Amino acid sequence: MRSVSRRGFLQTGAAAGVVFNVTSLPLVAHARLLETPPQPGPDWISADGRPRYRIDALAKVTGAKTFSRDYRARDLSGWPPEQSHAFLIRATKADHIFEGIDLTVLGDDLKPDRVVMHEDLVADGIAMPQPDFYGDVFLVPRGETPRLLGQPVALLIYRDFARFDAAKRRIRFDDKVVRYGKQTPYNHPPHYGAARYVRIDGGSATAEDRYSAFKDAVIFGTFAGDEVVWPAAGQSNAMARGMQVAAEIKQEIAASGDDALVLRRNYFSQSIDASAMEADNGNVWYDAAANVLHVMVATQSPYDMAKLMAELISKSKFPLKQVDLNVGYTVGYGTKDHHVFPFFCAVAGLYGEGRPVRLANDRFEQFQMALKRHAFWMDNTLVIDRATGKFRVMTCQFKMNGGGRKNYSFDVANVSVTAAQSIYYLPKSDMSVAALASRAVEAGSTRGYGTLQSMSATEMMVDEAAELLGIDPIELRLRNVFDSGMKNTQGAIPAGVLRNKEILLKARAHPLWTQRAAKKKTFEGENPGKKYGVGYGHVQKDYGCGAEAAVASVEFDPRGRITLRHVANEMGTGATTSQPIMVGEILGRVPDTTEFGVVRWPQMPLETTDEPYTMSQEEEDRRKNNPRWTPRFTAAISATNSVYFLGHATREAARTLVDFALWPAAKSLWSRGIGGGMFAPYDVRREDLRFAHGKVNAGGLPTLTFEQVAAEAHRLGLVCGVTVHTFNRWQWAEADFDVPDLRRVSLAVDALALRYGEGSSAERKALMTAGGWHFIERAAVRYPPVQRNNAGVTYYSPVATLVEVAVDTATGDVHLLSHHSLMDCGRQVVPELVSGQLQGGIAMGIGHALKEYLPLYEDGPGNGTWNWNRYVLPRAKDAAVWTQSAELLPPLSETDPPKGIAEVVMIAVVPAIANAVAHAIGKRFYELPITPDKVLKAVS
User: Fold this and answer.
1) What sign has the CA pseudo-torsion 723, 727, 728, 734?
2) Which pLDDT score, from 0 to 100, does residue 38 have?
3) Which of 56, 578, 675, 869 is the most interior residue, by most CB within 10 Å?
């Protein structure tokens, strides 16, 4: 088996001078470990340049694909072969003082080799990094009340697995191990924030808004107890003016006459567990002799984890020179994005007494501590003109439960409320949300990110409004559809064309919709006791986080072999397949070598404070004068960001390589001979250049092989490698660069590094001082203004779903007969990946609509007794696997960008099911999930 070297070091000034190094997993002889990703076989690409399978497909189907959880110390190069194991003891009461632990039940044989308590961490100088985000303490201090249910109180470490396993089994479910004192009030953190987005247009969709968040300000509230206190109206500042507009909207609703339908409804969306098959885990070895922390941990955000671990340990008594973080395949549907668990793994490793320590949740522990989807309470009002069916006003007041650690709760809250308009244009809107803290298990970044809750409620409301108005539900949607160039509820104009109207017209013509009345009559006549219904849901979901950053490099050697290196890490979306295909679309050949999850970029000596949301415009203007400064180095793998945002870096690197190297090299070959050769008589331009199947052609000139062009580029000493750094704040950053031998060039990137061919001059080679690359300090940069943060979102992907259900009035069961989805994902890079995302997302949505539910408090997962024996997930039989269908809108042209769809695909089916059940039994539901007991109560 081939050996793979370690990846070196990544310097940072943000961690007290500590070096940290993030590596992909090494391939070693004595374990079936895979590089990320494995290199594909020779049959991977078909004759038309399309992939025959995912890069990791063979590993997946043969059981050879490994995740972070699969590794032990003996599998990791350079680690000691023997390791320890650890588990956490957690509090199951959040209204009593914690007084300590009683391990009598373990006896002498199962006593841990090391017990770590809060007081040990304090004595050793270990404190939680970013306490406002992750919580103020690791372990509950003696004499204090836990912040949340399931909060760890102690860490137990064993040097051998057998004793560890026996002890863990003996302690589980034993309510006498944790000792509690007197009862107290709850001790959760302060509430996490309140925000309000108010907009009133200028009389039309295109006129300048009277007020909007984008034009003016987002309004932020404070708390008096559990109630939000908003700024007072009547003052001259932007938020006060927004409150005045909100008051006008409220008065208009109150004054609505008989010519308007004023629909007020309250909705509830439950807490759920994402149920990723890989539970949270980590394996950490602190090498005290070398002052190095070696980490193998499951995370979606390795770059940030390494930085924060360095910060955590550098302030403690443990000397630290380096953090060496291994990353590999993982999966989490967002729940491994900035979760606290990796830091517990780091702490465990510090107390391993020279041995690696593995800390890994079992499924009971995963339910007890893993990030949850937020529970939402939504109070919505919709005002509709009865004569025209046009929406006049929509208001929303949301409350969501973030549990006992802040995490991304306030961000999820903001995204939920900015998405609440769904696919509709609203002339006037007042959308507010409060992110509340509680003793519940922490909620955070989970697939849907608040929009599943808010848009499902909107779609259920619009469907009911159509019924009350006597208008076909799709017709009502058509009258109010959000069209291209219109403003969202934040006052920003979304990117590109919005194709919701096309989807609505297709849905209206689909047999499931046109034949629903006839099929209902026939089905119910043939199936006594069962009711038939068809429902429709239509949403559009933002993609991106508003501060997307990525790094990618594409280069070729003199033989024409292409290498792609990328920050993207495989999260199950197929990024390791789609990114090489993007290179192939531009260069006519997929890379011969790929490397993902890369964070060592010596050719990108950039500086950042990583404050893309909070830095003032004045401060950013000052900092951007430094040609090595960027608002963010790289973002986590989340927010449906791989195909468009991470792919932008891939596409820019490949396109720049064509401009700087392949086009001039091809011209050189075609221009050989007297009088400019065969090239001179023709008028051939850069836009005429074509790459396909390893061949290069342009404007009637002889076909060249990619290898010939690559060799010529190296001979001429042209640019043969391009690395770019990109940044997006709902708009791409652009910069100007003075490239040797070229005019000043403008690119949609903010940093550029070049590698010159083997034939380049000594002077040119001397420029490659940044890890063998020439880092070109930009001449100018244009970052999107900080005010664009208030846009909330400018990138949307729409999905609509028609659902056909049968409701058994004797049992209350809702059975999906079939479902049909329509989607605009722009240009598909790998259609099979899009199909897989759609099918998997719909299954998750079905679970949310009909089955999955977690109580928030003492009878919920924080008590440690929850597992899949009582948490119901959808099976294949529940998801209409064999009767599902889908239609994707074709791109308008081959230049259409791909759109992120990994989150939106799960949302539309949720309200579609609710609306189908309403059509079936004539009763509407306002709380999810729609379980058999609720159905039986409705039909009784």
Assistant:
1) negative
2) 63
3) 578
CATH topology for 548-791 is Aldehyde Oxidoreductase; domain 4 (3.30.365)
pTM of the entire predicted model: 0.95
Query: Span 194-271+373-544+793-939: which CATH code?
Result: 3.30.365.10
Task: Report the DSSP pairing between strands 780-782 and 734-738.
Answer: antiparallel
Query: How many contiguous H segments (helices) and E segments (strands) does the chain have?
Result: 23, 35
Element (H, E) at 803: strand 796-808
Contact 649, 642 (CB under 8 A): no
| Residue 801, beta-bridge partner list | 537, 821
Neighbours of 293 (CB within 10 A): 26
pLDDT value for 14? 37
What are the start and end residues of each CATH 3.90.1170.50 domain in the chain?
1-187+304-360
Residues of the chain with pLDDT under 50: 1-16, 24-35
Q: How far apart are CA 266 and CA 293, in angstroms?
A: 50
CA 318, chain centre distance (Å): 34
Do 65 and 572 contact (CB within 8 A), yes or no? no
Distance, in Å, from the CA atom of 165 to the CA atom of 119, rounded to the nearest integer, reads: 26
Say if CB 478 and CB 504 are below 8 A apart.
Answer: yes
Span 1-187+304-360: which CATH code? 3.90.1170.50
Q: With helix as H, strand as E and coil as C, how does 436-502 read?
A: ECCCCCCECCCCCCCHHHHHHHHHHHHHHHHHHHCCCHHHHHHHCECCCCCCCCCCCCCCCCCCHHH
Q: Which tens digits make up the pLDDT trace of 772-814?
A: 999 999 999 999 999 999 988 999 999 999 999 999 999 999 9
624, two tokens:
């951007």
- DSSP letter for 916, please: H
**In contact, 359 and 281? CB cutoff 8 Å:** yes
